[in-house]
Amino acid sequence: MSQDATRSLAEQLDARLAAPGAMDAARFEAFLDAQRRLGLVHGARPLCRYLRPHLIAEQDLAAIARAAEQIASALERVAQRAIRDDFLAEEVGLSADERALAAIVPGPGPLHTVGRLDMLVTDGGFSFIEYNADSPAGLTDQILVERTLMELPHLAPLRDGHGLRTPAPHRALLGALREGYAAWGGREARPAIAIVDWATLDTSAELRVLADLFSAEGHRTRIVDPDELTHDGRRLGAGGERIDLVYRRVITQELIGRRGLNHPLIRAYCDRAAHVANSFRIRPLNKKAAFAVLSNPMFSGLFTPEQRAAIAEHIPWTRRLTAGRAAWRGREVDLVELLLEEQESFVLKPNDEYGGKGVLLGWTATPAAWREAVRAAADQPCIAQERRRPRTARMPTFRGGAVEEEQVYFDLCPFVFARGVEGPLPTFTTRMEGAMVRLSASEVSNVSAGGGVTGLVIVDGARAPREGARHV
């Protein structure tokens, strides 16, 4: 990736941070308090403790966007086929209830409205390792970083700097929700929105931020626990108020597992009493085994030439962990024996978990723990994925009364959205806008596993600010 302009700008910012008086304990604590006040938190923990956003060259972001859009479109093809194909449904691990729900077509509109690809930046490029299609978090991180981190004095060159821009995934989300609602047949110019998730979750602060953003754009918006929803056969409601559009953050498997298929949200979805995004048809997309379909040559006929090229370059070798043989680097091998012999080359992931739960890195596990996990995983839904070595970066933080640099792993996780294409019938394409930037001292960088975040600043190398330039 191109790094000259971004490296020069990062060095300039770090030099400003190192200047006397640029950062002290009181300023750093005020920075954390601003995050707590605005909602840049996981539970009560401020998420941004590093003192520089991630800088990326415009051409590098464009390359990521092209690949992310192809991969997301390829995964949508997997989902569409798995809904109606017994073999592929089994391959991705759909339960009977999930498949029955996914088969329901709730009217026109996109299969999925918003998703987030988890991406590792490597020395040789980048790799996509998971897709969060059910309830992707982090959409408000960028705007909250701009209201907190980017207001610190040492980052003045990033404010109103020529050749710099920041993405707006929260605006892309609202645009995608509106377009999906209109294509579905919604008639309200400003539909009433319910953001639906369990009230006790650590992500509630993000939902409040989104509700405020939607309300500011003219939508009557409320955050609703699934147990507050009612459906009378004609309309979906909560607290006596009509709901036109549901931004669904409750995870499908948890809703079904806790409340069953007769829940008011599912009934309203089936009866077309409200537009629900993401739809319940995206469940195959959220299975980690969908990446096994992408990377297995057996299924290459599902994809376009452009999608196959993106898969070959950016998807690690991935397989469902089952007893049997698999092709590995030009030879046929027993899959279980391969994993035992090549422990440091693989990671094991449960097919249905999220937030880093149950992930086992072969290169950090003891041989005994790895053997036990491989033997157990052969009898439960799980994938094995080839290791990709993420690039690390040095990021400034404040600790022990002074600014210091810390070596961190970082993920760049692109958001993708369904956007309408002009034509006589509702047609949608996939577009990337922004990314969640996760930072962590460990290779499992999920926020729910203790990771943090920073913002994204896109740099046009020919126009980026130089040291000594004047900024407003």
β-strand number: 24
Number of domains: 2
Fraction of helical residues: 25-40%
So how many helices? 14
Mean pLDDT over the full residue set? 91
Radius of gyration: 23 Å
How far apart the termini lie comes to: 30 Å
* Percent range for β-strand residues: 25-35%
Largest sheet: 6 strands, antiparallel
Organism: Sorangium cellulosum (strain So ce56) (Polyangium cellulosum (strain So ce56))
Protein name: Glutathionylspermidine synthase pre-ATP-grasp-like domain-containing protein
Write up this protein.
- The chain is of the alpha+beta class.
- It has two domains: 4-289 and 391-459, no CATH class; 317-386, Dna Ligase, domain 1 (2-Layer Sandwich), CATH 3.30.1490.
- 33% of the residues lie in helices and 26% in strands.
- It has helices at 4-18, 25-38, 58-84, 86-92, 96-102, 141-147, 169-184, 204-216, 252-259, 264-271, 290-295, 305-314, 335-341, 367-377, and strands at 41-42, 45-46, 54-57, 114-122, 125-132, 164-165, 193-196, 221-224, 229-231, 236-238, 241-243, 245-248, 275-277, 318-320, 325-328, 331-334, 346-350, 360-361, 382-386, 392-399, 402-421, 427-440, 452-454, 456-459.
- Strands 4, 5, 20, 21, 22 and 23 form a six-stranded antiparallel β-sheet that branches. The protein has a four-stranded parallel β-sheet with strand order 8-7-12-13, with helices on one face. It has a four-stranded antiparallel β-sheet with strand order 14-19-17-18.
- Strand 10 (236-238) and strand 11 (241-243) form a beta hairpin.
- Helix 3 packs across helix 4 and helix 3 (58-84) packs across helix 12.
- The longest helix has 27 residues, at 58-84.
- The chain is globular, with a radius of gyration of 23 Å.
- The two termini are 30 Å apart.
